[in-house]
Design goal:
The protein is α+β, with helices and mostly antiparallel strands. Helices cover about 25% and strands about 30% of the residues. The longest helix is centred in the C-terminal third of the chain and has 17 residues.
């Protein structure tokens, strides 16, 4: 557990899903094309987003610590994502499955944790620094949505993802994102 805990909170060299820039980045956002990939996820219902993130993170952390059918430790990855739906108190928290396990990830033993495949997709991404609260994520998502509307971009407006890349112990040069799916 020490290696993964340390890796989770101190390492900067973590795997992340593959993507390419779909077009030249503009000042306020970029359009990325993500490849198909598997993620391990859990849905937390009826909590605040902050509490859902806390509970979801620990359920998924237990999975990578060996609470899976192979009792296998799995390296931490980035980002940690959270699906936020308008007017809904259900939040889906996810970790990217490392490349060496993409073909056959160990199945979770916790019935609240599941493996999902996210199909290749185009995402509008807005990046920002600092410590991200649910309020900050919502503010950045609103800014991105307003910018996309003003530029005539079509996107799914009824939900967005938050994406966090840093441990809580990293104080400077933090990286966070909000994602909207392109239509």
């Amino acid at each position: 557990m020490i290696k993964s805990f340390k890796q989770t909170f101190l390492s900067l060299d973590l795997q992340s899903p593959r993507w390419s820039s779909a077009e030249e980045m503009v000042k306020d956002y970029e359009l990325r094309q993500y490849e198909t990939a598997k993620w391990v996820s859990t849905v937390i219902r009826g909590e605040t987003q902050k509490e859902a993130m806390r509970q979801g993170f620990w359920k998924l952390f237990h999975y990578i610590q060996g609470k899976n059918e192979k009792e296998m430790k799995i390296d931490m990855t980035v980002p940690v994502t959270c699906l936020v739906k308008s007017g809904c108190t259900d939040f889906k928290i996810s970790f990217f499955v490392p490349f060496e396990h993409q073909d056959c990830p160990p199945q979770p033993t916790d019935s609240d944790v599941f493996i999902e495949e996210r199909k290749a997709t185009a995402l509008f991404v807005r990046s920002f620094g600092g410590f991200a609260s649910p309020e900050k994520y919502a503010e950045e998502a609103d800014t991105l949505a307003r910018t996309l509307r003003n530029r005539g971009q079509r996107f799914h407006e009824d939900f967005f993802y938050t994406a966090g890349y840093d441990s809580p112990f990293k104080l400077f040069n933090r990286h966070n994102e909000v994602w909207y799916f392109k239509k």
